[in-house]
Amino acid sequence: MDNNVLSAEDAANNDLRKAVLSGDTLTYRVKLQNQGFFESDVVHVYDTVPEGSTYVDGSMKIYRQKIDLLDSINEYADLEVMAEQTRNAAGSYETSTEAGYELSSPGADGSLQWVLPSLSLDYEYYVQYQVTVDDLPADEVSRLLTNTADWDFRCRNGDVSEDFPLPQIFRS
Asked: Could you report the per-residue pLDDT of 25-53, keeping only the tens digit for each?
């Protein structure tokens, strides 16, 4: 079963949506690719656990993949894990990251944050997490969950992002 979340464009075009049922596990994955002229510096990606769902402990990750224009068929092949949460022997979660990458588990308000030290021109980056759909009231058969991912960054020369062609963010 494919649990990819529809993009805002899909929703605006009234494309067919899959019902979200109580207990379903959904994966939210945001793809970032810098299509500007300069490498960015310190990218922050923000999201909030959608109302009506519960964050799956240990599910936050950051991946990257070298862009290969000749091999676009196998989209998620050769993903390199840059940061992830893993369960230790005591049963709690630890974050392991490459230099400069950070993960922030949900706060009381359900906020999530990923930090990438840069967004180079020759990689695609993916940030992801999972949720389970909360129990539905007896009169509700399915639920629409809204994703609110956002991001900001700075260019290598320190200028604010509005001054340069921006990286583009894709939701898949």
From this structure: 999 888 888 877 777 778 888 899 988 89
Beta carbons within 8 Å of 136's beta carbon, 6+ residues apart:
21, 22, 142, 143
Residue 8 has pLDDT above 50, yes or no: no
CA of residue 92 relative to chain centroid, distance:
22
The CA-based angle 150-13-6, given to 5 degrees, is 45
Tokens coding 9? 């464009």
Please, what's the b/e burial string for 113-132 (b: 16 or more CB within 10 A of its CB; e: otherwise)? bbbbbbbeeebbbbbbbbbe
Whole-model pTM: value is 0.73
Q: How far apart are CA 26 and CA 125, in angstroms?
A: 19
